[in-house]
Design goal:
- By secondary structure, this protein is mainly β.
- The chain has 2 domains: 143 residues, Sandwich (Immunoglobulin-like); 101 residues, Immunoglobulin-like (Sandwich), CATH 2.60.40.
- The strands form 4 sheets. Strands 4, 5, 7, 8, 10 and 11 form a 6-stranded antiparallel sheet that branches.
- Strand 7 and strand 8 form a beta hairpin.
- The N terminus is likely disordered.
Length: 270
C-alpha cells in the first residue's frame, strides 16, 4: 500500500554556469544536491528547487520528522535580494522501524522553493547553510553550504512541475467541512484532540499535528475514524518545560493516506 507521508535534506552551491544545475555532495557521497532553476513567474517571483538524490537505502526527513527523525533547518541569512522564501513540501512517506515511526523521503526529493525578491530589478542570490539528517543503519548530521544565483530566464522545469503536483491537497480540495481542536491541560503540557470531518484519504490514515510554535513538540497522534470524522489525539509539551499557550489558528494538521495527503491550516475550538 502506498503511503504519502515525510522532512528534508538540502543544500545549494554555485560557481557553475547557470545553464546547468549546481551540485553538492554530502558525507561519503550519501546524498547529492542539485539546484534546479524554474525561471521567473508571472507575478515576479523566482521559482527554483533543491533536488536531493540519496544513496540506496538512505532516507532524510520531512519538516515534522516523527519519533526518531531530524528536522531540516535552513539558514538564508547570507542571501542577496531575498524577501520571502516559500517552500512546497511534496507528500512524504511513513517509515516504521523497531516500533518507532518517522516521516521522510527516500531515493530522490525535489523541493520547490519560490523566492520573492526585495527588488524586482535585481538578481536573486541564495546563499547560506542547510542542517539536516540522513539515516540508514545510523544517522549522520549534515551541514551543507549553498550559493547560487537564480536564472530569471530559465524555462519551465518538468521536475519542479512534477514536485508541485505531489503536494498535499488543501482542505478545500480534500472537501474538509470542519476541523476543530479540543485542548485539555496535562501534567506535562497540553492534550490536543483534533477532529477533522472529511472523506477518507484512503487506507490507514495517519495524522501529524504541528503546534505552529518551534519551541513546542507534539507526540505522534493516535489516529482513528469515527464515521465521517478523523480523530487524532496527541500531547504537546514545551521543550523548556515551562507553561505555554496554543494558538489554534497556527496549528497545522496533515493527513497522510494511501490515495493522497491533506494539509489543514488552523482549527476551531472544540
Amino acid at each position: 500500500m502506498k503511503h504519502y507521508v515525510s522532512s528534508v535534506l538540502v543544500a545549494l552551491t554555485a560557481s557553475l554556469p547557470l545553464a546547468a544545475p549546481a551540485s553538492a555532495q554530502g558525507v561519503d557521497g550519501v546524498v547529492q544536491l542539485d539546484i534546479l532553476d524554474g525561471g521567473r513567474t508571472a507575478n515576479g517571483t523566482y521559482l527554483g528547487a533543491l533536488r536531493l538524490t540519496l544513496k540506496d537505502g538512505w532516507k532524510t526527513y520531512w519538516r515534522a520528522p516523527g519519533d526518531t527523525g531530524i528536522p531540516p533547518e535552513f539558514d538564508w541569512k547570507g542571501s542577496d535580494n531575498v524577501g520571502d522564501v516559500a517552500i512546497t513540501w511534496p507528500a512524504p512517506s511513513v517509515f516504521v522501524q523497531n516500533g518507532l515511526q518517522s516521516i521522510g523521503y527516500t531515493d530522490q526529493l525535489v523541493l520547490p522553493v519560490e523566492i520573492t525578491p526585495r527588488n524586482p530589478a535585481k538578481p536573486v542570490r541564495l546563499r547560506g547553510d542547510m542542517d539536516l539528517g540522513v539515516c540508514k543503519d545510523v544517522c549522520i548530521p549534515e551541514r551543507l553550504k549553498f550559493d547560487h544565483t537564480l536564472d530569471a530566464e530559465a524555462g519551465r522545469n518538468p521536475a519542479i512541475a512534477a514536485a508541485l503536483a505531489q503536494r498535499p491537497f488543501s482542505a478545500k480540495e480534500a472537501r474538509v467541512s470542519s476541523a476543530s481542536c479540543h485542548l485539555t491541560p496535562t501534567s506535562d503540557g497540553m492534550q490536543i484532540e483534533a477532529r477533522v470531518t472529511m472523506p477518507s484519504a484512503g487506507g490507514n490514515e495517519i495524522a501529524i499535528i504541528e503546534p505552529g510554535n518551534p519551541a513546542l513538540w507534539a507526540s505522534q497522534p493516535e489516529t482513528r475514524r469515527q464515521g465521517g470524522a478523523l480523530v487524532a489525539t496527541a500531547e504537546v509539551i514545551n521543550a523548556t518545560g515551562g507553561p505555554f499557550a496554543l494558538d489554534r489558528s497556527e496549528i497545522r494538521i496533515t493527513v497522510l493516506g494511501a490515495n493522497h495527503a491533506v494539509d489543514i491550516r488552523g482549527c476551531s475550538a472544540g
